[in-house]
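Data deposition worksheet. Section B asks for the primary sequence of the deposited chain exactly as it was used as input, without tags or linkers unless they were present during the calculation. Section C holds the resulting structure in token form. Section D is free text for depositor observations; keep each observation to a single sentence. Incomplete worksheets are returned to the depositor.
Section A, Depositor: J.P.
Section B:
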Amino acid sequence: MEKQVAIRLISLLILATMVTAAIDKSPKAVEKWFKNLPHAKQKTTRFHFYFHEIFGGENQTAPVIAQANITSQSATFFGMLRMFDNPLTVGPEPNSKQVGRAEGIHGAPSMTELTLFFNFNFVFTDGPYNGSTLSVLGRVAESQEYRELPIIGGSGVFRLAQGIATAKTYFSNDTLVIVEYNLIVLHY
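Section C:
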């Protein structure tokens, strides 16, 4: 009897995982989702992971795609733009389990302070959030120990998401930056 209960619970867990990972994104399904939204309860999801950005070498994940004529004379890299596709991992080690990617763009918008303007998505590629994204947009001042970026939306499980991504540099040198992220996400 216990064995049958365990098998049923495992089957139910597998089915729930499959349903979560296979969100119907067709226009009719999205319309139905919106109609049910007034009755939906808002959820809070927390994440902790590491973002690995490589600036140099053969395995570069954040190449320069444009820069202003004055960038090379600027102490703040003013006018430089990078496109990035950085792995998100469970731990700070490069070979740690990958759970997604951070894909987007950042640029140096200040002539007087080392800052970055970010516009990117956390793209989840593993686990119950596989195929879902969170969109982030904001300014980061490198002089701050903890930087805060607003989460302004999402897709899949994170439709209509909002929240905060807190970032702290874990490691940095001339070719690599590892950033520790903590996210608090409100979604339906």
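Section D:
Helices lie at 2-21, 27-36.
The first helix runs from residue 2 to 21.
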